[in-house]
Amino acid sequence: MATNTMPLTFSPPRLLHRHRRREAKPQRRSATGVSLLPRRGAASAPRRLYCAPSGGGEVSAPPADEQQEQAAKEEKEEYTLLAITGSDFNEVIMIIDSPATRYLLLDTNRNVHSVLPKTGVWTNSYWDEFVSLPAVVPRGPVALLGLGAGTAAHLMLKFYPWLQLVGWEIDPKIIELSRDYFGLSDLEKATESGGSLSVRIGDALSPSAIIEGGFAGIVVDLFADGKIIPQLQEVETWLEIAKKLMPDGRIMVNCGGADAAVSLADDMGLSSWVQNPTIKALCAAFPGQY
Length: 290
Prior knowledge:
The chain has 8 helices and 12 strands. It is α/β, with parallel strands linked by helices. It has a 5-stranded antiparallel sheet with strand order 1-2-3-4-5, with helices on one face. A hairpin with a 4-residue loop joins strand 4 and strand 5. The two termini are 27 Å apart.
């Protein structure tokens, strides 16, 4: 996403010491008054990777005119600070509102962790890709490891209202705020088709983060301080996650990050993917698989 006044970063929680709770009255801010830092490549169309022994793969980028149109819209937006607080897990938690989108910001770097579009359905970021998972897995429950304010859950239940989602979030304060500001409580109610979101507060990688019969699909979106958590760079972690799948189930993972060693926005070649430590771990755990 290219913009001079409001770059955005998409990355989840930071584990820090307890921070004193602070509530803020809504404040009007211009686009230059709130700094939302960019995570490289996050707002462009998600790349697709094929992990094969030969190292084959392909990368796609969004049209330049779409990037320019999105940047022009953001430059005109004004932002309102709805709330600011902290928790045992996140030193800073902010809720920022605009006419088009509501944002959950975490960390002292103000990384955007979740969004709630108001004027449409799509986020124009990697969350939109998660919607494709239910179409390529068996019928069954889907796990969201790293729920945040429920961006992926909103999208999935919009297009698959029968879907049973189970989302893990380590920070109870985020769940509390998401119910108040992001409509998370609405997702916890059954739809007319029987689908809903079940919220679990705790470690998404815990051995207890399972259900009987396994998951049809697992979405992994786990970050700390703008970086993928170190456990996801270990082969054993992915093998343990795979054990939580039912037969023919699949895993979908967000491998980006604000502090990634390789910038996918700057390097669109294959080498940028294979140098990503999480990709390396995935390819070692699941050789020759998508």
